[in-house]
Amino acid sequence: MTDVHGAVDAVWKLESARIVAALPRLVRDVGLAEELAQDALVAALEQWPLSGVPANPGAWLMTTARRRAVDRIRRDRLLERKHEQIARDVREDAAEDGRDDVLRLMFVSCHPVLPAEARVALTLRLLGGLTAGEIARAFLVDETTIARRIAAAKRTLAEERVPFELPARAELAERLSSVLGVVYLVFNEGYAATAGDDLIRPDLCLEALRLGRMLAELAPDHAEVHGLVALMELQASRAAARTGPSGEPVQLQEQNRGRWDQLLIRRGFTAMLRAREAGGPPGPYVLQAAIAVCHAQARTAEDTDWARIAALYEALVRLLPTPVVRLNRAVATGMAHGPQAGLDQADSLLTDPALRDYHLLPGVRGDLLARLGRDEEARLEFRRAASLTRNAAERAFLHRRADALTGPAAPAATLGSAARDFLGRDGLDAATIRSYGQTLRRLCRALGDDLPLTSLTADVVARVFATAWGDAAARTWNRHRSAVSSFGTWASLEGLAAHLERRAATGPPAPAIEGAELVELLGRPGIAPRERALWSLLHESAAGVSTALSLNVEDLDPSGCRARANGSWITWHEQTARLLPPLVAGRTRGPLFLSDRRPGPARTPSEADLCPDTGRRRLSYERAEYLFKQATKTVDPTGTGYTLRRLRAREARH
Amino acid sequence: MRYLMMTKPTEAAPDEKLFAEMSAWIEELTASGVLLATGGLEPGGFRVTSAGDEITVTDGPFAEAKEAVAGFALVEVRSKEEAIEIARRFRKLVGDGESVIQQVFGP
């Protein structure tokens, strides 16, 4: 007998998506379906070493999982009379090939009610058959984090009652783009590893490619699906050429094109043709794939059709004006229309807060500056990029690029050395060092340790401040401002804070919701009593959201206006006092704010989170937040809806 | 990782049922992203040998027909175990015979 565990694992990875996808029709809960499928896996691990691997291991797992599902339903006595119905369902289900089920499963595990990282973890778990440990290793986080993320995702799906259905036509595009986004995120984490020592983690790339190829067969009518597959195949085709002998990155222009994988390139082209056949205006993935096609078609780097690539980026920026896409456009422009044109576009991104710690911006600027012969600035940018990347191989590469630029040695007085001296002076207390340190570290990160001190001007400082603390509260802004001012005086750089206005103290960064706005919200039809009470309580008491949700009925003070939480009292006013009693409704203990439903049979929340009378669980933060966002979508200027924290009044009124 | 599966010829001629099952299976494997390329090979072929400067071309078929390759499949899998599992399924479909599976260097 060969390694049976290895065989079980292999079968599981090949089959788990179909098995998990087939079960929700029986048990109506994706989380439970996955648990039942896992039970079947455990059974295989127990039985196969003794009985041998069955002739059709996939079918064995499927049958076992289905049987467990039926057992579970029987045990729950939910469907006593419907046994025959179940038996019929099981037979009918077995007849279908399950492809639509897998597609449904993909849509559910990438559902927008889940946070992005939960979608990724759940998709790898449900569709890829990966264990929490495998996912954790791939993303370099610890296993419990992933396990918790998956458990929370399953809970959210159950609480939100996300149906196990294909999305309706109206929301199909949005939902599909969520699925594509998850697959591409997995691919990118493998292809451009953001952390760790390796530039590429092929396992994740393969996982994403398989998900994408699967999706292309399941939803062949959507051009963007094929666009994504083409993009991934073409990018993966360059994987072997992207790193040099010692793991250093090799830029596209310098790659040995003979090492590009022709098989994957051909698959990419084929996927591109399918995208074209599917028709419609090109979406972001098709455009990105078209760019990748341009590179794949160029026999040498010099043959690259940069004008076409720049044009494609122009189109892409219109659909997807993200800072990263704009940065890539700057690269393409730099190649097509000269380094100055590229630099102009790259410079316009300097004030974008989203890019302030993104190593590729100084990396790209360094490259463009070097081509313009501005070596000193280029070197500074490469060093800065090196200090920002989390990837070891890339950092070494950036340092080498900086070293390769000849020119006068770094000046004696640099920002980095001055900052160190400034903070190392005698007579500074620890709190001051910590506070000044924050300010100066940010300056160093934004401008580079090697920036000659003479280049540190009020304009430059103002730009860093706008990017780093533009949205910060007045107190934070003023603290950093006085740190810079103090540093300037010390370094004899007069007027360093000259362009930084002192800010008048205002409220917290995200202003609290006005009373009138809340009154309007509470008065709306269709808002449940529980939400009214919670919102009002948060507003009047200024208590933390978690604290409010953790309240139990027995914590309430008979006065009706306060409750004990974490050893102290939180208090509120008449409105809340009026809204709470219907929630208590005769209960004497257990969570004050309850979820609408009982937990599924497979989940056992801790007893403290269950109502002893009704068996319902405590309302979760996610759910509470979601409901508030839904309700405030229409009034929030950004359209996303407010967070519950915004309900806290500016100052506690007691 | 990629594996090349090479299948040796059998005496039994494939029937229509096998053709149907095989094409369904190939479709499934392609859809799941595992199968990258596959094909059947003509039994004859020709042989090119080099010795010093001399190149000799010999037309087939060759005597040791059993050692020839009748078909191939290039699969992309996560592990050797997955490659074994896929080969196992293939052998179940086609009946008695032999396949040789070797890992392809590279991605």
Task: Explain this structure.
Chain A has 654 residues and is mainly α. Chain A folds into four domains: 163 residues, no CATH class; 153 residues, Serine Threonine Protein Phosphatase 5, Tetratricopeptide repeat; 76 residues; 133 residues, hpI Integrase, Chain A, CATH 1.10.443. Chain A has a two-stranded antiparallel sheet. In chain A, strand 1 and strand 2 form a beta hairpin. The radius of gyration of chain A is 29 Å and the shape is globular. The mean pLDDT of chain A is 85. The longest helix of chain B has 16 residues. Helix content of chain B is 29%, strand content 34%. Chain B has one domain: Alpha-Beta Plaits. Chain B is an alpha+beta fold and 107 residues long. The mean pLDDT of chain B is 87. The N and C termini of chain B lie close together (6 Å). In chain B, a hairpin with a 2-residue loop joins strand 3 and strand 4. In chain B, the strands form two sheets. Chain B has a four-stranded antiparallel β-sheet with strand order 2-5-1-6. A two-stranded antiparallel ribbon of chain B has the order 3-4. Chain B contains two helices and six strands. At the A-B interface, helix 1 and helix 11 of A face helix 2 of B.
State the helicity of chain A in percent bands. Answer: 55-70%
**Number of discrete helical segments of chain A:** 30
Query: What's the name of the CATH homologous superfamily of chain B?
Result: Dimeric alpha+beta barrel
Oligomer: heterodimer
Q: How far from one another are the termini of chain B? A: 6 Å
Structural class of chain B: alpha+beta
User: Roughly how much helix do the residues of chain B carry, as a percent range?
Assistant: 25-40%
Name the biggest interface: A-B, 30 and 20 residues
C-alpha Rg of chain A (nearest Å): 29 Å
Main-sheet strand order of chain B equals 2-5-1-6
Pfam families (chain B): YCII
Domain YCII-related (chain B): 1-89
Family (chain B): Belongs to the YciI family.
InterPro entries (chain B): Dimeric_a/b-barrel, YCII
